[in-house]
Amino acid sequence: MTAAAAASEEESLAAVRAFVLDDGRLVRAVASGRRRNTTVPYRRIELRYVDVRAGRRLQVTSYDETQSHTRNVDVGAAAATVVDELLAQPFSHWHVDGRDETVQLRFTKRGRALLHRAAKCEPVEVDHAHDRVKRRRLDESDPLFAALGMTTADGSIKPSRRSKFRQVQDLLNVLDPVVADAVARGPGAAMSSGRPLRVVDLGCGNAYLTFAAFRYLTEVKQVPTRVTGVDVSATARAHNDDVAAKLAVSGRIDFVAGTIVDVELPEHPDLVLALHACDTATDDALARAVRWKAPVIIAAPCCHHDIQRQLAANPPRDPHRLITRHGILSERLADVLTDAFRAAVLRLAGYRVEVMEFVDSRHTPRNALIRAVRTGAPAERAVIDDYHALCRQWRVRPVLAQQLVDIHPVLRAEA
After folding, report:
1. List of residues 6+ apart from 59 with CB closer than 8 A
2. pLDDT at residue 88 is higher than 60
């Protein structure tokens, strides 16, 4: 079958079973989701074959809400028993990737089984290595981490810097999908070819993430890039200049001591970063990016206080007071409202917007990230109406809207 086709549940599960138990063909199998009105023991199960010292085993990794659990099962009868037990669970989707074929089994809301099989153009190699190296956007061995003082003498990341290392990888995972947009709408759209991608990091601090973005763009993506970091701290600028010198990139990355509002750039940027700028400093950064018509914006807000102050000064009407009367709930509500308004304003300013998780919530509760790509599309009437209705409902005026109302009149507060 080359397209999804209806099949009996027994036939479909038998096809998945045969594929999963073939250790010569299976690359990885994933079970996820649950069928209507059922429960499953784990939110996700992954299966693959690994070669350990005692021989080949079926590795079963089960993911609950907080952690993963891995076990290795003998190939043969033991593996068959485990696979049968998993197939008996009401998972709604099985994705089985093989050396020469991919099989997907999906159950509809009405419980009908849809089986899809697709042959691969070229066979892939099946990796049975037990300790696979985790794919990272920037490896620990990159000179950046040594220059930042994050590594030990043997080149591994210091335990105290592991969280920062993970944050670097998280940023690059978010950046990667929009590199092509930044290039296409920046140097790719320029009349003269050959100019570098222009990047600015507003509120860069000690520039861990600024340097990481630069290294990834230039060394991994092979995109000629020119970066400017902006921060009010002269001490941070001196530190960052020193790191740039260690990496021998001083001619391609520079730092400016100044405020987000006042900084002047010789040319408008193609990619604007604003990572952990406090309170309305994020709004300042987003407003500058919109005025520059930056093709791509990536912002990870930090603390949120302005909307919270507005809610306190002008409490919402009943029944919403049941939320705002509690300090912790009012604070969390303000966080959500602030970023929801920011996303809405960017949409009204002609951007395609996504709000997603940046770092794991275990590290910080304020882990949202806004990623926006400029399309220039006019604001939809429904979005305009919803935005103003939300402002009236909560009796607030978003700072970002006030900063952009002169160039986007649709943001003007309605009576």
Report:
1. 47, 48, 49, 50, 70, 71, 72, 73, 130
2. yes
For 146, what's the count of Cα atoms within 13 Å in the CB-facing half-sphere? 11
- pLDDT tens digits along 148-193: 999 988 788 998 999 899 999 999 999 999 999 999 998 888 755 6
Residues 101 and 119: their CA atoms lie apart, in Å, by 4
Residue 283: domain span:
143-411
Hunting for tokens 């998945």 — which residue is that? 16
- What's the burial of 228, exposed, middle or buried (CB within 10 Å: 0-12/13-18/19+)? buried
- State whether 208 and 269 are in the same domain: yes
Domain annotation covers residue 135? no
DSSP 8-state secondary structure symbol assigned to residue 76: T
Amino acid 133: pLDDT:
44
- Domain of 354, CATH number, reads 3.40.50.150
Task: Calculate mean pLDDT across residues 72-94.
Answer: 95
Pair 179, 115 in one domain: no
Structure tokens at 69: 């659990």
How far, in Å, CA of 149 to CA of 30, rounded?
A: 39
Instruction: State residue 40's pLDDT score.
Output: 92
Q: Residue 283 burial (CB < 10 Å; 0-12/13-18/19+)?
A: buried
pLDDT of 127 strictly over 90: no
Q: Both 94 and 170 in a single domain?
A: no
Residues 6+ apart with CB under 8 A from 235: none
**Residue 6 predicted with pLDDT over 70:** no
Q: Report the alpha-carbon distance of residue 398 to residue 380 in Å, rounded.
A: 19
Of 4, 187, 276, 409, which is closest to residue 285 (Cα–Cα)?
Answer: 276
Q: pLDDT above 90 covers what percent of the chain?
A: 65
Is 133 inside a domain boundary? Answer: no
Please compute the mean of the pLDDT values over residues 114-125 and round it to a whole number. 83
User: What domain count does the chain have?
Assistant: 2
Asked if residue 246 belongs to a domain, the reply is yes
